[in-house]
Amino acid sequence: MKNFYEVLGISKNATIAEIKKAYRTLAMKYHPDRNKAKDASEKFKEISHAYEILSDPQKRQTYDQVGDESFQQGGPQQRQYTQEGSPYTYSYQSGKDAQGFSGFTDPNDIFEQFFGGGSSFSNRQSGPTRQTYTLTLNFDEAVHGIEKTVVIDGEQKNIKIPAGVDTGTKIRYGNHDIVMEVTPNPLFERKGADIFTEENITFKQAALGDIITIKTIDHPIKLRIPMGTQPETIIRLSGRGLPKLKELGKGDMYVKISVTIPRVLSEKQKELFEKF
Questions:
Q1: Assigned domain for 266 exists
Q2: Does 208 lie in the same domain as 98?
Q3: DSSP-derived secondary structure for 57-115
Q4: Backbone φ, ψ for residue 181 (5° rounding)
Q5: Running DSSP on this structure, what letter comes out for residue 186?
Q6: Which of 99, 112, 142, 165 could form a disulfide with 169 if both were Cys (CB 3.0 to 4.6 A apart)?
């Protein structure tokens, strides 16, 4: 297995900021939704696994001490959605100060982690009478809930995980505490029950308006881009977020719109822009 630093193309003394930057660049390049090469999926998982280890100070320290063998890759792949959505209504607001969207100040914050490998069920002592276990879930499992079959004290147990859990969520199971650890998704940033994502549109779509298909945590849906949409417009989709664990309802989904400006124009295009 390749050295994790080599996988990300960084030095062993790289800072967290340098690790994030290298990860985001490679993740964007090899994500299966963007790269259709045969080896893209494996490369994607390799990059994700390396980032999961090196971005965690404790895991990184252990890796530096004992090497690759303690971190064998084995994380799940991202689920692909193909269900077609339908038009709907929404509200939107423009500007960087949109409520709940401060995390998009730095684009690097959007893509925190991919699906990395992780131990399925490890335990450690927590006090004299209760044991604490860490259960690693992928983003999709945490969003929709799942029943996991695990082994506790040599016995096979089925544990139901409710939809909407996050890293740090604790579930009491008999005399044990089950603590969730959720690996993030490359397309969505999560803050509580709210989901944040970014969509790129063309200058033409921004100026004239359009209907585009976007991914949500459930299935693709149609999103109407109003005529005259400005760069960094934030569209809020009510109820498209995650289930709220301690109250009824769901969070919201926020879509930040970025606009691609053409770098090179033909003479005809220049003429049309000047007339415009």
A1: no
A2: yes
A3: HHHHHHHHHH-GGG----PPPPPP----------EEEESTT-TT-GGGSSGGGT-----
A4: -130, 115
A5: S
A6: 165
pLDDT of residue 230: 92
Choose one of 165, 183, 201: the last residue of a domain. Answer: 183
Specify whether 207 is located in the same domain as 248.
Answer: yes
> Could you tell me the pTM of the whole model?
0.53
- Describe the chain by its helix, strand, coil percentages, rounded to 5: 25, 30, 45
Give 10-residue mean pLDDT values along the chain (276 residues): 86 90 88 82 87 86 70 39 32 36 33 33 48 89 91 85 91 87 89 93 92 94 94 93 87 93 82 79
240 phi-psi bin (left φ>0, alpha ψ -120 to 50, beta other): alpha
Q: For residue 21, give the H/E element and its range.
A: helix 16-30
Count of domains forming the chain = 3
Is 276 inside any structural domain?
no
Which tokens is 262 given? 């053409």
Give me the domain span that covers residue 20.
4-70
Task: Name the token pair of 264.
Answer: 């090179």
> Is the distance from CB of 176 to CB of 132 less than 8 angstroms?
yes
Strand order in the sheet with 233-237: 91-94, 233-237, 253-260, 194-202, 189-191
**Structural domain contains residue 149:** yes
